[in-house]
Design brief:
This protein has about 120 residues and is an all-beta fold. Helix content is about 0%, strand content about 50%. It has a six-stranded mixed sheet, with no helix packed on it. Strand 4 and strand 5 form a beta hairpin. The protein is globular, with a radius of gyration of 13 Å. The model has no long low-confidence stretch (mean pLDDT about 95).
């Protein structure tokens, strides 16, 4: 099983980034998928999640209206479009399988929002 995140980087406040997670080694379309983030010294936080078909999504209050999760079951990818980024969005972002309890994790990608 492999989950590989990409798309992180250093951006300025107000900018956008798109994270993508490529999955392999399991039947991707059978799994709900999630994005989490973690800041050093703090617990990992659920950011967004999406059902197997993509018909339902859920977001943390702090990102509602700014972030959009989507998936492509034909390409085994899940993405997180992040708009109007703020310094508080700075974190390592992780892709994970599952809705309420993650089973598989990616290695994470750093997102830094700074002027």
């Amino acid at each position: 099983v492999r989950l590989v995140e990409s798309g992180g980087g250093l951006v300025q406040p107000g900018d956008s980034l798109r994270l993508t997670c490529a999955a392999s080694g399991f039947t991707f379309s059978n799994y709900h998928m999630s994005w989490y983030r973690q800041v050093p010294g703090k617990q990992r936080q659920l950011v967004a999640r999406i059902t197997t078909s993509g018909s339902s999504t859920d977001y943390a209050d702090s990102v509602k209206g700014r972030f959009t999760i989507s998936r492509d079951n034909g390409k085994n990818t899940v993405s997180l479009q992040m708009n109007n980024l703020t310094r508080e969005d700075t974190a390592v972002y992780y892709c994970a399988s599952g809705w309420s309890r993650a089973q598989y994790w990616g290695q994470g990608t750093q997102v830094t929002v700074s002027s």
